[in-house]
Amino acid sequence: MNRVTRLHGLYAITDTALAQNQNLTEQVAQALLGGAHIIQYRDKSGDRSRRQAEAECLLKLCREHHALLLINDDLELAKSIGADGIHLGRDDASLPQARAVLGPEAIIGVSCYNQLELAREASRAGADYIAFGRFFTSQTKPDAVQADPELLRQASRELPQPLVAIGGITPENGGPLIDAGADMLAVIDAIFNQTDIRLAAARFNKLFQPEDLPR
């Protein structure tokens, strides 16, 4: 299975704040056991040594579960541990810069918020996936711009890249986003802030039926 066809299903994003009193590696292990296909390591702290150690542990864990590990925002960290790729936002490194550092095989995803034109630009620049959102009220980014499911429908018609939906997604509201064109659902709180992380991930995984293959 090539790197693009692996971009499908539950995309779990870590939140260090939610892991303060728990073992991050164990949290991610539970998400993987529940069916997460992709893990994004997201830590905005300045603790370089801890971030390096955590990312290395998560990469090993993802390899064991045949899942992908992407790094949020940090080119140096992604390069140093040999992560599968990186996720870029508006204020992060440019896509060409990331490609030059990480190479042609790296997965590079780009946040395009609620703007189709940004997605078109990212597509032309060679992004491997496009992320839109937030679609619902988000605990992580409550002030993020609002996106509409129609954006997914239009983007899925126009763009060849897999699409990610993010922002306040739960097992109850995620299905219509998949129907609208999302190949992946990116989730933080509804997985890692739950008592049973494995069960929470499994509930999301059930939304992706066998017939819902990547485009």
From TrEMBL:
It catalyses: 2-(2-carboxy-4-methylthiazol-5-yl)ethyl phosphate + 4-amino-2-methyl-5-(diphosphooxymethyl)pyrimidine + 2 H(+) = thiamine phosphate + CO2 + diphosphate; 4-methyl-5-(2-phosphooxyethyl)-thiazole + 4-amino-2-methyl-5-(diphosphooxymethyl)pyrimidine + H(+) = thiamine phosphate + diphosphate; 2-[(2R,5Z)-2-carboxy-4-methylthiazol-5(2H)-ylidene]ethyl phosphate + 4-amino-2-methyl-5-(diphosphooxymethyl)pyrimidine + 2 H(+) = thiamine phosphate + CO2 + diphosphate. Keywords: Magnesium, Metal-binding, Thiamine biosynthesis, Transferase. GO terms for molecular function: magnesium ion binding; thiamine-phosphate diphosphorylase activity. Its cofactor is Mg(2+). Binds 1 Mg(2+) ion per subunit. 2-[(2R,5Z)-2-carboxy-4-methylthiazol-5(2H)-ylidene]ethyl phosphate binds at S138, Q139, T140, G168. One of its GO terms (biological process) is thiamine biosynthetic process. 4-amino-2-methyl-5-(diphosphooxymethyl)pyrimidine binds at Q40, Y41, R42, D43, K44, N72, S111, K141. GO terms for cellular component: cytoplasm. Its EC number is 2.5.1.3. Residues 10-191 form the Thiamine phosphate synthase/TenI domain. Mg(2+) binds at D73, D92. Pathway: Cofactor biosynthesis; thiamine diphosphate biosynthesis; thiamine phosphate from 4-amino-2-methyl-5-diphosphomethylpyrimidine and 4-methyl-5-(2-phosphoethyl)-thiazole: step 1/1. Condenses 4-methyl-5-(beta-hydroxyethyl)thiazole monophosphate (THZ-P) and 2-methyl-4-amino-5-hydroxymethyl pyrimidine pyrophosphate (HMP-PP) to form thiamine monophosphate (TMP). HAMAP family: TMP_synthase. Belongs to the thiamine-phosphate synthase family. This is Thiamine-phosphate synthase. It comes from endosymbiont of Escarpia spicata.
